[in-house]
Here is the input.
Amino acid sequence: LERVGVPAAAITADPAGFRTLDSVLRARDVYGLRRFTVVTQCFHAPRAVAIARRHQLRAIAYCTPNPPGPGGLRLQIREVFARARAVLDLYVLHSGPSA
Here is the structure.
């Protein structure tokens, strides 16, 4: 990001976000953000933004290319299950961040 001109002060990595829900809620609760850009692979971006919006946060996503080959395909298949889990977390279980 810095190579394309994003100031280092505008970049926050979340080393304790063990899943997307964690990272979104930590953006709000730990880093104090109400608006942010998620930088992630394209297959993952819609889920990250949907989780943020469900929590009344203004998020957009910048998509990086999906990993090529079998590894990328595995991640895309995993995303199907991750989206189902996100629906359960957001609309059925009303889950908070992981412990």
Strands lie at 35-41, 58-64. The longest strand covers residues 35-41. The mean pLDDT is 89. The CA atoms of residues 1 and 59 lie 17 Å apart.
